[in-house]
Amino acid sequence: MSQTVDRALSILPLLAEGPADLGQVADRLGVHKSTALRLLRTLHEHGLVYRQSDQRYRLGARLIALAQEAMENLDIREIAHPHLVRLNEQCGHTVHLAVYEEDEVLYIDKVESRYPVRMYSRIGKPVAITVAAVAKLLLADLAEHERRALADKLDYPMYTARSTPNAPAFLRELDKVREQGWATDLGGHEESINCVAAPIRGADGRVVAAMSVSAPNVVVTADELLTLLPLVRRTADDISGEYSGRNATKGSA
């Protein structure tokens, strides 16, 4: 199996050089044409290669889209990180950055609280999608039919008495978040943890990521944490401006 995967992956850099026919692929891999054809068909089914009308193969649009998506996510993390660190220095609480991928919301960056009592979270770990503030922001930006389709297929675990209980309640919360432009999780996932979040937008105005500040009740109350919302939103706006190029435009005008 590992040899098959290795051979399949070896096709991609070959096609990156330009379109190639079945014989060229087989020769490069050192395999029979039937073996090369099976590999190409599998890659084609996943959209990673495309067969042209002249029977030659080239890289598929799906591969290009995946590469672009990966670059954008890496980009936003690189751009956002100094801002997240600065926000953490100002407020002292845990700061997260999250994105929406394949029906999951994932943390892609985190700056730890300076207080001894901290929340547990990990980069790369999916968040509790029905209650997390960053998830609400990312999902609220979806088209209405996408929001409804996703809400209908989600489970709604009652982590606490404040958790979102069902799809209608979830959709109402997303509508509210969409209108106000920010989100909270006030004890919805863990009774003792509160969170405020703001969206990061690309040049087209769509939400590309969300950032949040979280803290336990023993450090600050929910009301005290909410006073940080203007600072969180300003930080998100600064990241949005840098990511979309708006800040650079202002500076050069």
TrEMBL record:
Gene3D superfamilies: 3.30.450.40, Winged helix-like DNA-binding domain superfamily/Winged helix DNA-binding domain (1.10.10.10). It holds the Pfam family HTH_IclR. InterPro entries: GAF-like_dom_sf, HTH_MetabolicPath_Reg, Tscrpt_reg_IclR_C, Tscrpt_reg_IclR_N, WH-like_DNA-bd_sf, WH_DNA-bd_sf. The keyword Ribonucleoprotein does not apply. PROSITE patterns: HTH_ICLR (PS51077), ICLR_ED (PS51078). Residues 2-61 form the HTH iclR-type domain. Keywords: Activator, DNA-binding, Glycerol metabolism, Transcription, Transcription regulation. GO terms for molecular function: DNA binding; DNA-binding transcription factor activity. Residues 62-245 form the IclR-ED domain. SUPFAM superfamilies: GAF domain-like (SSF55781), Winged helix' DNA-binding domain (SSF46785). GO terms for biological process: glycerol metabolic process; negative regulation of DNA-templated transcription. The keyword Oxidoreductase does not apply. PANTHER family: HELIX-TURN-HELIX TRANSCRIPTIONAL REGULATOR, ICLR FAMILY, HTH-TYPE TRANSCRIPTIONAL REPRESSOR ALLR. May be an activator protein for the gylABX operon. This is Glycerol operon regulatory protein. It comes from Streptomyces regalis. The lineage of its organism: Bacteria, Bacillati, Actinomycetota, Actinomycetes, Kitasatosporales.
